[in-house]
Amino acid sequence: AHFVTQGKPPLTGMPSTRVQSPSESTTLSVHLIDSVAEAELILHYTLFERHNVIARRAELINRGEHPLRINRFMSLSLDLMDRDWEWMQFSGDWIRERKPYTRPLTPGIQSVGSRRGASSAQHNPFVILKRPHTTEDEGDAIGLSLIYSGNFTTVAEVDSNNQTRFMTGIHPEGFSWTLMPQDTFSTPEALLSYSQKGLGQLSRQFHDVFRKQLMPSKWLVDPRPILINSWESTYFDFTEDKLLILAKEAAKVGIELFVLDDGWFGKRSDDTCGLGDWHANTTKLPSGISGLAEKIEGLGLKFGLWIEPEMINAGTGLFALHPDWVISDPSRPPCQARNQYVLDFSRPEVVEEIFIQLTHVLDTASIHSLKWDMNRNMTDHFSRGLPPDRQGELSHRYILGVYSLYEKLTKRYPDLLIESCSAGGGRFDPGMLSFAPQTWTSDNTDAISRLHIQYGTSFAYPLCTMGSHVSASPNHQVLRHTSLKTRGDVAFFGTFGYELDLTLLSLEEMTLIKAQIAFFKTHRDLIHSGDFYRLLSPFESHNETAWMVVSKDGSTALLAWYQILAEPNQGLFTLKLKGLDPHALYAVSGSADVSSGSLLMEWGLLLRPSFNGIHLSGDPVGDFQSRIWVLTKVE
Ligand code: DGJ
């Protein structure tokens, strides 16, 4: 049987796209019966009124009298009639996340996935199939995204007839599920989108559906605060006084939110201890979190706090009480990573304890935001909460536990802004975005590395999801020196903030920061809600990157161009813009002339009017340069 209904059937316990009113979407539900297995399979396909996207998930109901065992259950499967496609994945590691890799499909299976208990920095649950000739602006492209933060696989299998099957879902390796009579198992939801107009259009389709149908709607409307994060300015070494001095400087330049990162709780003085004891370290913070938050608010800033709720250190009060709450095989000593263990979030009592601890902090202090970190992956897969023959359920139950804590927190504190993080971008996925509208993109804060990381991330995710901060120079990860201007010009294209010791800066630098903040406040809405266009790829040109954001009505645009190394006498070069109204005239900042949208898109904006040795004032010189233009439609 099949049914067509307005709206979407709810998916409980897991994030999925949401609709405000049933008229925003239509769902086809196909019910299939397997009379041998005595099971009912329901396939849900949702179409959105305003998005070129299909959401698909599946449910299995045990209609028999005996338990059923599920070993593999994909969320979406699409059959294509040929194999003339290229596979594009987004892969990397810590501090080098989401680099695009493209290769032609070949007979057999090609796949990416994660078995780390998190979607991972190694591979993103987003893959594109594109025609070999497809570019940013032309040609077919199909994107597949899984709304899930745990173990996943995305597969393209080319069979001997040259047909291609494109699939995504929970990674079957290490997974199994015992489905008791009358119980239902639901897969995560997958999103499929197709563009005939290249990769750029495909990305914008995903950006729109993530912004409009997935992320918490409050954060579509409310501006994301410009923040200062304490991590790269103090690391673990801070006192209340030191933080207040930093906050005072932040307030002077117009920063809106102060985020206290790792180190505020338990006996935390380095990364060997403290996780699991979520109460203030009163040696560092004599007035506790509530006192500190109050003082920060007194300076005119909102206050945010770092947590890593899924983890535990030995030597904590929680560990002394519940050593068996660690994910570990009882017959072996468990492995540590970053000196910590993973808490068994597949057990509701573990999630509940952490929730209670966090409510004590959140109920007693004025906390505007949380940064939720997760710094190690799962090993020693064994839960004492599950019988031996159901250990295959652990990874999925773990991520359901993570989602349940998100759910409880966001229900109780609906105004809380959460930034997700996993040692940077190790869990940058749509599952997280449905609770936490921004993700710390990478622990690599170097502006030049960030060109690559933010460019790669933009294939799936909109700018308003990408945490991007101006940090110190030389940079702490790659030791590169870049100008404050270039660092700002890169960080503007995300959820903007600062992560450096402002007390060490000169008056001139503080004046520039003040101007950057004023600039960002003027253009924040455009950056976060506009259409993003990639112009020059750092992966292809190697020396240049360019991108722009255009407001939905085409009236304003922000264009950025970055040059990595200085080159002598490069000659003239025009940068072709995108997304403008071809019939309109635009004023381009820095020039008295107006140009038509069609001229700017077909001919381009003239760059590099000078060569080394003869500089027009204002021209970028030297390595690691950037320029930004504001384009405004002239009535
Ligand atoms: C990893 C995060 O990505 C950093 O920003 C910082 O929060 C550290 N963890 C703190 O331990």
Give an account of the 3D structure.
With 635 residues, this protein is α+β, with helices and mostly antiparallel strands. 22% of the residues lie in helices and 30% in strands. The strands form seven sheets. Strands 1, 2, 3, 4, 7, 8, 10, 11, 15 and 16 form a ten-stranded antiparallel sheet that branches. A hairpin with a 5-residue loop joins strand 12 and strand 13. It is globular, with a radius of gyration of 25 Å. The model has no long low-confidence stretch (mean pLDDT 96). Bound molecules: (2R,3S,4R,5S)-2-(hydroxymethyl)piperidine-3,4,5-triol. The site of (2R,3S,4R,5S)-2-(hydroxymethyl)piperidine-3,4,5-triol (DGJ) has 11 residues, from loops.
Total beta strand runs: 34
Task: State the helical fraction.
Answer: 10-25%
What oligomeric state best describes the polypeptide chains here? single chain
N-C termini distance? 56 Å
Main sheet summary? 10 strands, antiparallel
Average pLDDT over all residues: 96
Estimated structural class: alpha+beta
Helix count from the secondary structure assignment: 13
